[in-house]
Design goal:
By secondary structure, the chain is α+β, with helices and mostly antiparallel strands. The chain contains four helices and four strands. It is elongated, with a radius of gyration of 19 Å. Strands 1-2-4-3 form a four-stranded antiparallel β-sheet. It has a single domain (about 5-60), classed as Multidrug-efflux Transporter Regulator, Chain: A, Domain 2 (Orthogonal Bundle).
Length: about 80
């Protein structure tokens, strides 16, 4: 349930990680690496995200990327020698 602060709806970091099924550490890492918005700290304690920021985080969490079938350095493990 969004929290209202001065007429603006915010979603807490805890609510967002529960919704997305990710850990707090994952969200913190994404924030630290600059992949997702950092949000707003409320009363020097809880982190909140606006609806737009939460949507950006949702899109990042559910992104699809091409799968590499094998990294180049791993190919040697599967090559037949001799």
């Amino acid at each position: 349930m969004p929290t209202q602060i001065e007429g603006v709806s915010y979603l807490s970091a805890g609510e967002l990680v529960d919704e997305l099924g990710i850990s707090r550490q994952t969200l913190w890492r994404w924030r630290q690496e600059g992949h997702v918005p950092t949000g707003y700290r409320f009363r020097d304690r809880q982190i909140f995200f606006t609806a737009e920021e939460a949507e950006t985080i949702r899109r990042y969490a559910f992104r699809l990327q091409p799968a590499n079938t094998a990294a180049p350095r791993q190919l040697g493990l599967f090559e037949r020698r001799g």
